[in-house]
Amino acid sequence: MDLEKLATNFQQKINEEIKIEPKDWMPDAYRKTNIRQISQHAHSEIVGMLPEGNWITRAPSLKRKAILLAKIQDEAGHGLYLYSAAETLGISREEMLEQLHTGKAKYSSIFNYPSLTWADMGAIGWLVDGAAIVNQIILCRTSYGPYSRAMIRICKEESFHQRQGFEILWVLSQGTKEQKAMCQDAINRWWWPSLMMFGPKDDESPNTAQSLAWKIKIKTNDELRQQFVDMIAEQVKVLGMTLPDPNLKWNTKKLHYDFGEINWQEFWNVVNGNGPCNKQRLNARIKAHKDGAWVREAASAYAAKKNQPQSKVA
Amino acid sequence: MNNLIKKYFYGDYGEIEEGGSNTSQENQWPLWEIFIRSKQGLDHKHVGSLHAADAKMAIENARDVYTRRLEGVSIWVVESKYITANNPDEAGELFEPAKDKIYRHPTFYKLPDKVNHM
Ligand SMILES: [Fe+2]
Ligand SMILES: [Fe+2]
User: CA-based angle A204:A210:A214, to the nearest 5?
Assistant: First the structure.
C-alpha cells in the first residue's frame, strides 16, 4: 500500500472513532506527538509525587498519613501505566527517564510550586487533581488505544484524590480562625497555577489543530479551562472560601464564569525552568534514580544467576 | 506470520527528544505483559505491562500496580517477547473467511412465531 492510501485509511479510522493500536500503521508525526504527550504526562505523575511526599511524615493523624500514602502510591501507578503506553510506540523507559533527567522532556509546571502547609494537601487534591481529572476524563476518548486505556484506569482512581483533598479543606474550613486562614491561603496560592495546568491559550497553542484532527486531543485548552473554572467557582462556596480573582463573575449570557487574565509571564517562566522548585524537583528525581541503581543491578544479577542452570538444561 | 510484539525499539522521536542518548536495551529489565483474573469464574484479562527482573518480581509489581483495590484474585505474567501476534496489515485476509458465514448466527434462522424464542 502506498503512503497516501495508508494515511487516508488512518484518518478514516480516526474519524470513525476506531482506536489506533500499537502495531497499526500511523503517520510519524502522530507517533511523535503521542510519545511526547504520553511521556510528559507520565513524568508529571512521577514528579507530582514530590510536593505531597513532603507532608507524609507531618500528616496531622495516622488516618491522614495512610490516605496520603495511598494517594501518592496511586500517582506512581499512573506514571507506570503511562510509561507503558508510551513504550508501545517504541521509545524505551530508560530513554524517557533520560529525557526527564536532562530536562529535554517537560512535566506539568504545577509541581514546581512548593507545598508550604498541611492545607496545601487539600488544595492540591481538590484543585490540582481536579484540573487533572477534567483533562483526563476527556482523554479517555483519545484515539491511541493504549493511552485511552491508561486514562480510563487512571480516572477510576482519581476521584478519591479530589474528594480526599476537598475533605481536608472542608475540615479546616470548619475549624479555628487559624485553620480557616490556612485553608484560604492554600486556595489563594494554588488557584492560578491550577488554571495554568491547561496550557497556553488556544491561539498560542500551535499543535492544537492537528492534535484535534487526530483526536489526540478532544477539547481545546481554553474549553477545558472554562469547564474547570465553572466547576470550582461553585464548589468553593461550599467551603465558605473565595477564589483570588476579582474578575470572577457569572456571565448570564454565556452561562459560564468570566475570569481574570492568567499571568502568562509566570507560566512561561516556570515552564522554562525558573519556577520556585524546578531545580529541587529534578534533583530529587535524579537522586532517587541514582540511589536505586544498585537495587536494579542486584535484581538483574539475581535473575541472571537463577536462570543459569535452567538454560543449561534447555 | 511470525510477528513478535516488539515494544522495545523505534528510532523516530520528536524534536525535543532529538539527539537522545543511546542507552542500551540490555541493562533494562525485560518487559512483561500482565493478565488478571478479577474474580473466580472469569477469564484472565490483559491489563497492561511492566518491567521486572524476573517472573516473581513481575507478579509482585503487578500486584502493587494493578490490584491495589482488590481488582484481582489471580495474576499471570509473560515476557512480552514471547507473545506472537498477527500482522494488523494482513488482518483483512486473516478474518475474511468468517465474514460471509452469517448462517453461523442464530438470527439467520427465521422460525415460526410459536418457537421463535428458541
Ligand atoms: Fe494521577
Ligand atoms: Fe491524582
Answer: 140
